[in-house]
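Q: Hi! First time doing this. I have a protein sequence and I read that you can turn it into a structure. Is that right? Here it is:
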Amino acid sequence: MKQVICLMAVLTFFYCNSSTAQMNANKVIYAAHERLSMNNGWKFYPGDIPFPEIKGQDNTYNNAKAGKSWGAAAPEFDDSHWRVLNLPHDWSVESAYDSTENPNQGYRKRGIGWYRRSFKLDPADKGKHLELQFDGIATNCTVWVNGTLMHRNFCGYTSFYIDISSMAHYGNVPNNIAIRVDAVPQEGWWYEGAGIYRHTWLVKQSPVHIITDGVFAQPIKTHAGAWVIPVEATIENSSKTNAGITVVSSVWDNSGKRVASATANGTVQPLDQAITHLQIQVSNPQLWTLENPVLYTVQTIIQQDGRPTDTVSTNCGFRTIQFRADSGFFLNDQWVKIKGTCNHQDHAGVGVAVPDALWDFRIKKLKEIGVNANRCSHNPPSNEFLEACDRNGILVMDENRNFNVSPEYQRQLEWMVRRDRNHPSIILWSVFNEEPMQATENGYEMVRRMSAVVKRLDTTRPVTAAQSDGLFTPLNVSDAVDVVGFNYQQDSYEPYHKLHPNKPITSSEDVSGLMNRGEYVNDPVKHTLAAYDENKPGWGEIHRTAWKKIAEKPYVAGCFVWTGFDYRGEPQPFEWPSASSSFGIMDVCGFPKTAYYIHQAQWLPASQPVLHFEPHWNWPADSIGKKIKVMVMSNADKVKLVLNGKLIGEQQVDPYMMNNFEVPYHPGKLEAFGYKNNKQVSHFVAETTGEPVKLELIPYRDTLAGNGTDATPVNVMVRDAKGRPVETANMKLVFEISGAGTIIGMGNGNHNNHEPEKGNTYSLYNGLAQVIIQSKANSRGQVVLTVKGEGVQAASIVIQVKETTAIPFIQ
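A: Yes, that's right. Below is the predicted 3D structure, encoded as structure tokens:
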């Protein structure tokens, strides 16, 4: 039973001149909480290892006892021949494409695999609270520690934590972890990967400590206009005696200055938990906005007899959110139209084992389009992704995976809210996506219960559900949510709003437009889809009309386009050899498709001029004189198209449908000009190029931290003798790397391509390819990447690797 400590908080304010150094000094003083990476040095076996059949009196007796496991779960099992690797790891992306596998899983084998790791603990750790943390394992897993079965996890998207304090070994006796991962079960209808694909940790704490995800510190603006942070801290006591505690929570701004704090006292009984509530008042904080996402830190310290025993720091942001039934979404009392995308979590070359640095890359690519929101589809994301959204100013719809009110699945929902509720980026909790029971009373009752679970933990954000049907039945899930989510029901916005004028609504998923980058002809034989925003499935819309239906209705809070990036699996409308989706505004590498420029024209302000047209201007000789459709995307007032100095035509810009011209093809220079108030504000040109002559490498970042985890995409393109990009090149490339980095994956955005994504050879697709470079651990110096292609000049780049403080880890 948990005690609740609600004591009068003593508020004190500190005015420090020492900024960041002072805060860091405090963190060193209170460094009783160690979080050590366990990502390195795992042993992996691809396949199952059957357990022996238990026979005989002694074996049967021992089998029923703690600490006795068999086969690969046994500490003494010989794993010397197993592969040694570092996490995160997705074994599915390493496998070959297989036409007999599930198309929705990208035709990649999943199956079963085993992981094992050993580590030693200092005798000084005896008596501490010791916890193993697993951020994500796809899909189901069983975990043994020192021969005892400790945990079973039934979701590939939820973290889990294992207290090993009572069974840990110290000194020279190693601790053994064995994990059987069963990736045969499928939770989604998209590529889910396989293996321990998120981070792993060992946490060491004092016996009197803050539990994992145990601090809730979400700033609130009171009705009187003042800002307060209600801090809720859950403290656990694993010692043998009562613990008298003092809880001190301090707020630090982004310069490292402590601006306010509060203190409370209490007692925690042995092997029990207590919840402490504090109120911290903060005067005139800087607000978290999309343009300037200012973050503060709440540092919560547990003291016993004046001595700090544990400390936890959490980021927060001062912002208000509101969904209004008549006028949509407001951030800090300012109207914001949500311009969002839905996204899965895989990336070219790496599958779901995405390096943390790639989250920033992907979010910044979305922001280039004008995107201001992300829907986590259809599962909780990594914590590192949410941190990237916090610091980059992206709103988030955080989504639960399984629609189920059983105790296990309610526990998963509780975990998501507890872990994520401090992130200022999150504005909505979504409890499901497109469930068959959504139109029924059963569905209503389930959502009512799930919403109650959420609100026991967080009342600062509304609950929604992504509903694809059943909005007009007498009792359905929309009656149990705070904000109604519409999936592909654009024609229902107005009738639903008329029936329920006091219910806020948003699109939770829309569009599903289909196109392949750099393809301009629909060819069902070749499995290509023209990139003119004309293809859509039966349930969807094209990008242009879907936005018009939302933009013209102020009561619709906004949209979440399906999707920002292509993803493996769900290769509609095709199957083999197509292995990935074509819904994305960008492909799996983040290379823009036509939809990228359509949304830029729709979403970016006029102060950021947009002008682009498709297609390229490289066509075969027999196309001369034939009309080529040219789509022009612009946020100007008027566009003009000129070919080889001759005017083709002028059109007023259609801000939703864009502009189309029929241009008789002649090699040369095609130019577009954009005008605002009769003044030229933009210019775009495409030329007929010569043959490919040289390669160019474009790194997203030119420096890496030498910690063995930092990574950057490097884009590859090909140019002709005059330096113009050849967008029709599809040659094979060879990658050579030396120095302080390695290649961890390759891609090109072609959903029909079956080349291995691991290795050193890959092809361009319509002029582009991508390679992911990761630094080596404990390295500094340079990474030299050279790319070669037949008949073209090779290209090399140097990426600097800077020595950095190693991520704390356990051997």
